[in-house]
Specification:
alpha/beta; Rossmann fold; 6-stranded mixed β-sheet; 6 strands; binds guanosine-5'-triphosphate; binds magnesium ion
Length: about 220
């Protein structure tokens, strides 16, 4: 795996006032090449889509400040390069320390749905997956029916086999993207609160008007 760009490459969108952040969570995206992992993060974090392939062969970390119940959380999304083999310690730690895993497949690639089992098995070498929040995003929902190679039945079966929540999304149109991320992020935050509650911490449970609004000034960044 190639290393990320140097610190000097950071621009001002990378600046986040950490004093406002209650907690940081990490989510890893796993799936075959060209299923749209990078595009999905570009859509969610910075609300843009580009038709050309993102030919980036190093680990990217996207960031988003997420507001829930008057608290700000920093969500880091790990977007590893296409192929991982013989994981090094850094990669193993990345898997062990993550809070959530989102598997990605896309409607134009039937094998990418089959391969979800491969990604799942790959991770079980390093992580107890029962400790992670997980979901499967089926991307490219916008494609015309004749260009889709995955059926609803196949998706349902995969959901049952692997006990994964499934979300059909489109990075291109933005369809269901925010809702799907919100679902897994809220579960991660809920789990974190429950663990802390069991340790005796109190939480304000009143909702705020901007509960699901996400700060745009930090947006997403690649480091
Ligand atoms: N029609 C359509 N095309 C998409 C969508 N999402 C991504 N694409 C296209 O699919 C191609 C691959 O997208 P990437 O985001 O580079 O895929 P990736 O999974 O990050 O690929 P790797 O980095 O090689 O692992 C690009 O040409 C995107 O424009 C979508 O929702 N709909
Ligand atoms: Mg990519």
């Amino acid at each position: 795996m190639k290393s990320a760009p140097e610190q000097e490459d950071l621009n001002e969108t990378d600046l986040i006032d950490l004093s406002t952040i209650s907690e940081t969570f990490n989510i890893i995206l796993m799936g075959d090449s060209s299923t749209g992992k990078t595009s999905i993060l570009q859509r969610f974090c910075d609300n843009f889509f580009k038709t050309e392939k993102n030919n980036i062969n190093y680990l990217q970390i996207f960031k988003k400040v997420y507001l829930l119940l008057n608290k700000s959380y920093l969500i880091k999304f790990w977007d590893p390069p296409d192929f991982m083999d013989n994981c090094n310690d850094f990669e193993i730690n990345m898997f062990r320390n993550c809070d959530g895993i989102i598997y990605i497949c896309s409607y134009d690639n039937a094998a990418s749905l089959t391969h979800i089992n491969t990604w799942y098995q790959f991770l079980t070498q390093y992580v107890d997956l029962s400790t992670k929040e997980m979901a499967l995003f089926v991307n490219k929902k916008d494609l015309k029916e004749e260009n889709k190679n995955i059926t609803e039945e196949q998706i349902d079966k995969k959901s049952k086999d692997l006990q994964l929540d499934i979300f059909e999304i489109s990075a291109k149109s933005g369809y269901n993207v925010n809702k799907s991320f919100k679902n897994i992020i809220d579960k991660i935050i809920e789990k974190y609160k429950n663990i802390n509650k069991s340790k005796g911490y109190e939480y304000n449970t009143e909702s705020s008007d901007n509960e699901i609004e996400n700060e745009k000034e930090e947006g997403c960044s690649i480091i």
